Amino acid sequence: MARVHWCAGHSRLGTGHLMIVEIWQSFRRLPLWVQIWVAAILVPVNLAALLFLSAPNGMLVAALAVGGMAPNLIIMMRDHGFSRAMALPHLLIWTPLVILLISLLTGGAELPDTYRQFLFLLLVVNLVSLAFDCVDAMRWWKGDRGAA
User: Fold this and answer.
1) Which helix (H) or strand (E) holds 124?
2) Does the keyword Transmembrane helix apply (predicted)?
């Protein structure tokens, strides 16, 4: 799929629409397994934290889960697509989340079964993501900064 390039005065579409197209095209250039991982697992599981706001520490869990993704909207707009820089907010925000999740799951607190199961799923998903993010962050640090 060809990349959309925008030149001032030469587009019938607004720049916001073009940016969305560029981000979508960048997403579609990712390997299929990464697209599935992001769209079907990573984002939905982290957004599901919003369903548990009233659970013990639910607001903090949700703030960290969603907070690890939110800065990536700005990164995608800046880079006009998916880049390895998107690993950085995950590392900064999801590392404390993982520590919190381990504490909640092992601390002996009474947690509803559904919430406990969700916390375990969130822990596993974000540990897997952080493993990928460590590799991506190192590649970004070494200069691999282009968008997909």
Assistant:
1) helix 113-141
2) yes
CB 83 within 8 A of CB 146: yes
Q: pLDDT of 52-104, one tens digit each?
A: 999 999 999 999 999 999 999 999 999 999 999 999 999 999 999 999 999 99
| Residue 41 lies in domain | 32-141
- 143, 80 in Cβ contact below 8 A? no
79 occurs within a structural domain: yes
58: amino acid identity, one letter:
G
Domain tally for the chain? Answer: 1
